[in-house]
Amino acid sequence: MSQPTEHSPVAPSAAHHDGTAPAAPAPGSPAGGSTTKSTLEKARRDKLEKLRGLGLDPWGKRYDGATPIGQVREVGETLDKSPEFSGGPTVRVAGRIMLLRSAGSLVFIDLVDRTGRIQIMLGKKQVGPDAWKIIDCLDLGDLVGFDGRLGHSKTGEMTVFASGVEFLTKSLETPPDKFHGLVDADLRQRMRYLDLIHGEGVRDRFVARCRIVEAVRRVLTSRGYLEVEGPTLQESAGGAAARPFKTHHNALDMPLVLRIALELHLKRLLVGGMERVFELGRVYRNEGVSPRHNPEFTMMEAYEAYGDYFTMMDLTEAIFLEAAQAAGTPTRFEWMGHTVDLTPPFRRAKYDDLLAEVTGCNPADPASVAAAAAAQGIETAGRHADVIKSDLFEATVEKTLSGPVFVIDYPAAICPLTKRKADAPHVAERFELYVAGIELANAYTELNDPDLQEELFRTQLAGLAQEESMARMDTDFIRALRHGMPPAGGLGIGIDRLVMFLTAAPSIRDVILFPIHRPHAES
RNA sequence: GAGGCUGUAGCUCAGUCGGUAGAGCAUCGGACUUUUAAUCCGUUGGUCCUGGGUUCGAGUCCCAGCAGCCUCACCA
């Protein structure tokens, strides 16, 4: 067979000593042909100039009439499946070149758009000499449009047999490894656009996020809730226990904080007669970063006048089921090492009962709780009994909750925004929804007694620093309550965690397109 | 904030006992009108994260730093 040495500009045959030959650069490869990052780019820029030389714009233009590849595939499924059948309808597709296989004057391309992937076949004879010059300029990652008959190749692969080519956009960067894609977690998040192109299931997960958010809105609006927008810049951050981000308004010369919750402004709207309201938006907490925490995340809070926390349990189930359906989540699956089952109704278990069950202590007896807490290494001296109980619950019970399970009836002292049970004032009408040991939702029968609310804002629990408490005085909010807030149920759902759950993602960074990152020194 | 692991070519990864830096993909050149991560022949490509130290000699050992991941703490 013909040896490459026949075509080599360097001395033919010559006993093949590797060390001697490579001194002379091949005439066909300019600049001696190194393949550092910059020369990989140069190879692409050379092709870009070649396209310009053909009178084509390497950045393309409007390209009408392309059919989504997913739809093309549906048509293809109905066609004659016999090999080399190319008699299907003429279609136009546009997308990114993911794979490029050349077999001499025959080229196969895997083209991808938002709906799918399809093979394009280009024959030198079939497309003609002018179009073939464009084929010579193609690289992995370029965006191209094709016209051609739909059919099946010799091996049965659905194929567009191209007759026309429209160059749409040059890619100047080398794409990631075509088989492994982008693996490095850091690069995947910093260059999410590449992750979306090459990552297995990445785009599907973010599409699922959109569907989930749509479903949440659908359930609420269908029940007569109005979507509103509260202020993200606030004088003081209330409604949750977290440190806020601080900023400053220049013209007003006043310090401001970014909101940490949506609660207090939505309740003002209940006072204002907006009896069913919700907000779906970003909140900011200046706390640690972890697989379950990002400094900015998306919260949905909903408030319904004349409801209570049981109303909110029903609402929560409706939202979860609709969202699961929208995301295509199976009824039963594995997440974070737990087997979860979405079949309604979700289990409901009392806080104290779970505590007794898991730790064996007597939740009604502070001494018994303190002893169990001490056994877990929890500090008890000088701390409020309910704070100790809460720490014990988190240390022991939370991780056992596969769920979904509504944990109901919380110790009142750690719930300063919640109505107390009429017949048991030490118990708050609150639930948290747990799945796989992770809190996904939190709801109250809302406290609407302005005098009690003011007292709870003033009372700092022993063992809790000011900034660790959600009891933060807000006199304007108290005044609003004094005008009369209807009895109500309120619900908060962490949307990112909901998406994690319904897509079985192990990290919150998998469901946030651009999670927080330290800057890289490079670039 | 503490500990563990990791950082090598554009991407994915090897690198033994401390002795001149390796592979696949990508690039470039060549063969091929039915490929499927095409294949085959050839070619090219390195701030071994950064800075010190030990050593005749460091990708490798030591120290410090930077970044990422994980666990814990924090985030009720």
Binned, the helix content reads 25-40%
Strand content: 25-35%
Shape: elongated
Structural class of the secondary elements? Answer: alpha+beta
Radius of gyration: 31 Å
Description:
The chain has 523 residues and is of the alpha+beta class. It has 14 helices and 19 strands. The strands form 4 sheets. Strands 6, 10, 11, 14, 15, 16, 17, 18 and 19 form a 9-stranded mixed β-sheet that branches. A hairpin with a 2-residue loop joins strand 17 (424-435) and strand 18 (438-445). It is elongated. The model is unreliable at 1-34 (pLDDT under 50). The protein binds one RNA strand of 76 nucleotides through helix 1, strand 1, strand 2, strand 3 and helix 3.
Topology:
Layout: H1 37-53, H2 69-77, E1 90-102, E2 106-113, E3 116-123, H3 124-135, E4 143-152, E5 158-169, H4 185-190, H5 192-198, H6 202-222, E6 226-227, E7 233-234, E8 246-249, E9 254-258, H7 263-271, E10 276-284, E11 296-305, H8 309-327, E12 332-335, E13 338-341, E14 347-350, H9 351-359, H10 366-375, H11 385-396, E15 405-411, E16 420-421, E17 424-435, E18 438-445, H12 450-458, H13 475-482, E19 488-494, H14 495-502
Parallel strand pairs: 3-5, 6-10, 14-15
Antiparallel strand pairs: 1-2, 1-4, 2-3, 4-5, 7-9, 8-9, 10-11, 11-19, 12-13, 15-17, 16-17, 17-18, 18-19
The chain binds one RNA strand of 76 nucleotides through helix 1, strand 1, strand 2, strand 3 and helix 3.
List keywords for this structure.
RNA-binding, 19 strands, single chain, alpha+beta, disordered N terminus, 14 helices, 9-stranded mixed β-sheet, elongated, 523 residues, 5-stranded mixed beta barrel
